Amino acid sequence: MDSIFKIVDRALWAQAEAAGRFDGAPVDLADGYIHFSTAAQVEETAAKHFSGRNDLLLVTVDPARLGAALTFEPSRGGALFPHLYAPLPFSAVTDVRPLPLGGDGRHVFPPLGSPLTGEAGA
């Protein structure tokens, strides 16, 4: 697997950068792990959980840098989603970029199969 993705509130990510660690969003903290999506899942995740939000970032992560704390577990309809049972190390983040809304109200994603260059790497 090339990359996994985390959709994060811009302000929360700024707090994490200032603190030097990302422990997760409130839903992650409540569930006990950080939720991620694969390239095939991330657009549905945005539509289902972040509809209409324009204050978001798309964080790209190299799963090979996460070690044994990353597992794939069944979620929506039995699909396997990546879950990280540890803080996200910034060394695993390969790109961070805005996730804007398009004119149709859906989020506009970059091509997820190509190298990304964003506003703030880690």
Task: Give a short synopsis of this structure.
The chain has 122 residues and is an alpha+beta fold. It has three helices and six strands.
Task: Walk me through what this model shows.
Helices cover 20% and strands 25% of the residues. It is an alpha+beta fold and 122 residues long. It has one domain (4-98): ADP-ribosylation fold. Mean pLDDT is 90; it is low at 114-122.
List the helices and strands and how they pair.
Blueprint: E1 4-9, H1 10-19, H2 26-31, E2 34-35, H3 42-49, E3 56-61, E4 70-74, E5 80-84, E6 93-98
Antiparallel strand pairs: 1-3, 2-5, 3-6, 4-5
Q: Give the percentage of residues in beta strands.
A: 15-25%
Structural classification: alpha+beta
Global mean pLDDT: 90
Task: Return the CATH class.
Answer: Alpha Beta
The count of strands amounts to: 6
For the record, the CATH architecture stands as: Alpha-Beta Barrel
The CATH topology: ADP-ribosylation fold
Number of helices: 3
Helix content bin: 10-25%
CATH H-level homologous superfamily name: Protein of unknown function DUF952
How large is the radius of gyration?
13 Å
Protein name: Dihydroorotate dehydrogenase
